[in-house]
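We emphasize that the prediction below concerns an isolated chain of 397 residues; any contacts that depend on oligomerization or on bound cofactors are therefore not represented. The input was used exactly as deposited, without trimming of termini.
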Amino acid sequence: MLTRFAVAPSGFKESLSAQAAADAIAAGVRRVVPDAEVDLIPLVDGGEGTARALAAATGGRLVALAATGPLGEPVGTHFALLGSGAASGSGSGSGDTAVVEMAAVAGLSLVPHGLRDPGATTTYGVGELIRAALDTGVRRVLVGCGDSGTSDGGAGALQALGARLLDADGFELPHGGRELTRLHRIDPSGLDPRLKDVDLLVACNPYNVLCGERGVARVFGPQKGATPTQVEELSAALENWAYVLTRDLGGTATDLRHGRGTGASGGLGAGLAALAARLLPRFEVLLDHLDLDARLARADLVLTAEGALDHQTPRGKVPAEVARRAKLHGRPVLALAGTLGEGAHTVPGVDAFTGILPAPMARAEAFLRAAELLTDATERALRMILLGAGLPRGAGV
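Result of the prediction step, given as a token string:
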């Protein structure tokens, strides 16, 4: 009989946080197995909710402030100061680490649909959050990448940290990735000197690269609102950015065009790597303190979820990582998704999967009802699993 469930979802972009998704799945489980032991493990991947989740997990706190949003206007945002509960394996120390969640200041959810143009948005606020974190005296700044609404290669962040991006006439470039086509040189003399004394870590998807056919402009530009013409324009701009960045800063051995993680959050990874930041696979940095492997091993069934299950899922998404770890302990995995795309059946380690929509519906309605739909889908899937396994029905089944 299935009695122990590990619920380890990611958030559903622009709809449900990881915590809300976990709660919705747990509600569906308890409709079928009322006395189930449900271990909620909402997972962050560097995107929305990362700072809040890590602060809660380590006994830390959030610091609220205003910073420049992706459209250049002030937004309310935050960063986290971790507490001493962080595990040493995550590289987080004891209360000396700040977490800057780029989505909290430059995320796609902060860009209204009618204004989405990744060639115009900026990561300037990310640099402001890093500076604010340095003001607290931390020795380590962890930047979480994910759910970005920008594709400026981290140019805005570098400007906020004191670098000057100059055109051929010596004038400072305005915000936006497309402006990087005109970049002639970078003056790093004004960079915040404290950057030399801090360990700057970037938790990113290592599959994302800055340039080329698999570069961020072509892979993610359309998702952020770019037209085909804008995609090519932005791709050329990021090629120039990588060239000038390497020539004028050169503070890293990372190949800024094709290095693993350089394309994280619209190229923020490349910009920070040029400041000698270490680009690290996000799950190695973010999940260790959750004791995830041991919790998956205790479960009879592992449930995970994300907004879209498709060919991109094995490339550094939460369900693929959960399934990989669960399989190390021989645990079965069920994945739930807002939508099922090409390649959904090829995610290694996922034994069964299902979409949460019972019928076609408008995107706005699906987003509004996401928690309800996820709970209902969990109930349907679990009833089918119990029926197929031929298990005796318990109370409530």
